[in-house]
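Bump. Still looking for Meiotic nuclear division protein 1 homolog structure tokens.
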Amino acid sequence: QSKKRGLSLDEKREKMLQIFYESQDFFLLKELEKLGPKKGVISQSVKDVIQNLVDDDLVFKEKIGTSVYFWSLPSCAGNQLRNIQKKLNSDIQISKRRHAELVDQHTNLKKGRENSDERNQALDALKTIETKFNELSGEMVQYSDNDPATFDAMKQAVEVAHTAANRWTDNIFTLRQWCSNNFPQAKEQLDHLYNEIGITDDLDYLEL
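Sorry for the wait, here they are.
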């Protein structure tokens, strides 16, 4: 025997709305959770279904004191549907006007662009020019390294790097002198340390 199919969300919404329409009364959530199973909606899903209906303005809720009441009347659904219909009709009219504008624009753009030998020749010439332009653009990229602006930027970068390198060299000389003045007894150990990290006697300022 096949298992009974559960209700879809739309079917659950319809069943819960029937509770409101048939009674035209106000309900607490716990009351709806008891009534839902009688319509085939399990109590565990009643809360989510009711909230879904509230989000769509088909069910209304109001907090009175410490309790929250839910209600819905057939006229509420009718008003909701009428509002939706009004919005859709407005969208249709806007779309029709936009379509008419686009048709007019298309017609105007076609004027002077009718197929002719002269127009086809002009299009072929334009295509040839575009192809040549793309080829020349590619060549310009290959020669960008020789661009004067690029060369000047590289020259400035070299000057900045040169100044920074000599500044650090000066800092190293200053540090070595300070260590020699303050730790003369550790000269041998310091010299060994300098050699290990690459600071040798031939260290000097860089020349451009």
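Strands lie at 27-28, 60-64, 67-71.

Edit: fixed formatting.
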